[in-house]
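Workshop exercise sheet. Pairs work together: one partner reads the sequence aloud, the other fills in the structure field after running the prediction. Swap roles for the next sheet.
Pair: D.N. / O.F.
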Amino acid sequence: MIRLRFACSSHASLIVVGGHSRGVGKTSVVEHILRSRPEDETWAAVKVSAHRHAPASGAGPLVEETLRPSPLTQSGRYLASGARRAFLCRTPDADLPETAAFVRGLLAEGTHVIVESNRLASFVEPDVLLFVVSPSVFDWKPSSGPCLARADALVTGERAAAVPKAIAARGVKLDGRPVFEMTRDRVVRGLDAWVDGRLNQPIRRHAIA
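Structure field:
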């Protein structure tokens, strides 16, 4: 796979949040991160979907910007949590490079970006890659494997102690990666300080396939 490097503003950060199934809390993790960021930071939040109404392969991804906060949509929830801009990208697999380029454009403008997606994780090298696991949910998307393997840390809405066994069943080990627990009120204990530490590292690399 060919990867291209590009220059972006030194303060632009990229976070990707993936997860193994629907309803495991990916959007809640994105909301938590957005709520925890300083008010003087400009964040764009992007949901990448393989919805059946996506354009045919070769037509490019369909990018829709959400303009109003709403509890009814993922992108609306992003705005309600503090994102300055929120987008829904309906993207077939063949058009993922175009969506990655769209994210690259936001970063090049100096905008911090948080992406909710498994599939896009194979096309970028984020500053932070989180993977959400719910051990009681046995459905695993095919796209979850590569995302889990590359994740910097894991988040669960259940007991952290149950996560190693759940991912071991998928042939993956924690290998020292932290697991953060999300409470019923969608607070992820300890995640804020850990994310700050990752984003404050001096090297920024956002490779786009």
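Discussion prompt: DSSP finds six helices and eight strands in the chain. What would you look at next?
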